[in-house]
């Protein structure tokens, strides 16, 4: 019974580690995203990205690029983040662009028929 509890604790610990690996930071022309855009990291990435975007909106930038070159994995929660970032840019009259989207993300975007939305 103790070994099962330890296994459960270990699993939860590794999930938390993957959350810390996921990051969004400001770059010269927008934001750089690293790590996994997945359910376990979505909430913290959304919170941080909204703070960063709000501060960038004050700088009078007209467009925001989201560089996904270091995204390692993405799931439906990650796709929802992309849609939310696009929506936030639209609401603030800023152009939105994605660069270096991994093939896995492109496949999900096509599956959900979001190609036009995320252009």
Descriptors:
single chain; 119 residues; alpha/beta; Transcription Regulator spoIIAA; four-stranded mixed beta sheet; 4 helices; 4 strands; 54% helix; 25% strand; globular; disordered N terminus; STAS_dom; MlaB-like_STAS
Textual characterization of the structure:
With 119 residues, this protein is α/β, with parallel strands linked by helices. The protein has a single domain (2-111), classed as Transcription Regulator spoIIAA (2-Layer Sandwich), CATH 3.30.750. 54% of the residues lie in helices and 25% in strands. The chain contains four helices and four strands. Strand 2, helix 2 (39-57) and strand 3 form a beta-alpha-beta unit. Helix 1 runs parallel beside helix 2. The model is unreliable at 1-20 (pLDDT under 50).
Helix/strand layout:
Elements: H1 2-21, E1 23-27, E2 30-37, H2 39-57, E3 63-74, H3 76-91, E4 95-99, H4 103-111
Helix pairs in contact: 1-2, 2-3
Pfam families: STAS_2
Domain STAS: 31-119
Protein name: Phospholipid transport system transporter-binding protein
Q: Give the termini distance in whole angstroms.
A: 52 Å
Q: Indicate the structural class.
A: alpha/beta
In CATH, what is the homologous superfamily?
STAS domain
Determine the mean pLDDT: 82
The number of helical runs is 4
CATH architecture: 2-Layer Sandwich
Largest sheet: 4 strands, mixed
Low-pLDDT residue spans: 1-20
CATH topology grouping: Transcription Regulator spoIIAA
User: Which sequence of strands runs across the widest sheet?
Assistant: 1-2-3-4
Order of helices and strands: HEEHEHEH
| Morphology | globular
CATH class: Alpha Beta
Estimated share of beta-strand residues: 25-35%
């Amino acid at each position: 019974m103790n070994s099962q509890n330890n296994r459960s604790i270990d699993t939860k610990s590794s999930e938390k580690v993957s959350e810390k690996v996921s990051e969004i930071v400001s770059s010269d022309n927008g934001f750089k995203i690293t790590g996994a855009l997945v359910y376990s990291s979505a909430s913290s990435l959304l919170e941080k990205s909204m703070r960063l975007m709000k501060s960038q909106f004050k700088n009078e930038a007209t467009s925001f690029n989201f560089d996904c070159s270091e995204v390692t994995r993405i799931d439906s929660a990650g796709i929802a983040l992309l849609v939310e970032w696009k929506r936030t840019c639209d609401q603030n009259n800023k152009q939105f662009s994605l660069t270096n989207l991994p093939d896995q993300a492109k496949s999900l975007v096509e599956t959900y028929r979001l190609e036009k939305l995320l252009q």
